[in-house]
Write a structure and sequence with these properties.
binds FE2/S2 (inorganic) cluster, Glutaredoxin, 5-stranded mixed beta sheet, 2 domains, alpha+beta
C-alpha cells in the first residue's frame, strides 16, 4: 500500500505536524494535546508515542498528563456532547440537581459516553449564559433555565438529530 493511501500513515503525519507546530514553545505538551483532541476528537493511544518522541518525553509522561486532565479524552466521544455548567451561578440555580438527573438519565458519569455511543456527558465551567442558569450546551447549542424534563427533551431531540445526520452523511437511508 502506498503511504498516501495508508490511513495510519496519514494519522501519524498529522500528529507529527501538530507536534512540530508547537514543539519550540515552552510547555508545548498541553497545546499539542489540545490540538490533537481538536483534530481527532480524542487523544488516542496511537498518538502518545508520536508526541513523546517529538518532545523527547517518555510515553508514560505523556499518558500521565492526558489522564490527569479530565478535559482530555482517550477514547472517541459520543456522536453528541452534552455539557452541564458547574460554575457558581448555575450551582446557585440548581445545577447540582440537574447534574444528578443527567447522570441517572443517561446512565453515565461525567467524562463518560453512553453504551450506544450516542452521548458524552461533560462538565463545563460557565457557558456565558449565567442569566439563564442552569445552563447546558448540547452539541453547539446553548440552553438556559434547564430542568430535568427539559434536559431529557433537549437531549432526546438532538441525539436523534445527530443519529439522522450521521446516517445521511454515510448515505444510509435505512431506519
Ligand atoms: S455560571 Fe453557568 S453559564 Fe455562567
Amino acid at each position: 500500500m502506498s503511504e498516501a493511501a495508508n490511513p495510519q500513515s496519514d494519522f501519524t503525519q498529522s500528529v507529527k505536524r501538530i507536534v512540530q507546530a508547537h514543539a519550540a514553545q515552552p510547555g508545548a505538551l498541553l497545546p499539542i494535546l489540545h490540538a490533537v483532541q481538536e483534530a481527532f476528537g480524542y487523544v488516542s493511544s496511537e498518538a502518545l508515542p508520536i508526541i513523546a518522541l517529538g518532545l523527547n518525553l517518555s510515553r508514560a509522561e505523556v499518558h500521565g498528563v492526558v489522564s490527569f486532565y479530565h478535559h482530555f479524552r482517550s477514547s472517541p466521544p459520543g456522536r453528541l456532547t452534552v455539557q452541564i455548567c458547574r460554575a457558581e451561578s448555575c450551582q446557585a440555580m440548581g445545577s447540582r440537581t440537574l447534574q444528578a438527573h443527567a447522570k441517572r438519565s443517561l446512565g453515565v458519569d461525567f467524562n463518560e459516553t453512553t453504551a450506544n455511543g450516542a452521548v458524552t456527558l461533560l462538565p463545563v465551567y460557565c457557558l456565558g449564559n449565567c442569566a439563564c442558569s442552569p445552563a447546558i450546551r448540547v452539541g453547539d447549542k446553548v440552553f438556559g433555565n434547564v430542568d430535568a424534563d427539559s434536559f431529557d427533551a433537549i437531549v432526546a431531540e438532538l441525539s436523534a438529530d445527530a443519529v439522522e445526520v450521521r446516517k445521511m452523511s454515510r448515505g444510509d437511508t435505512h431506519g
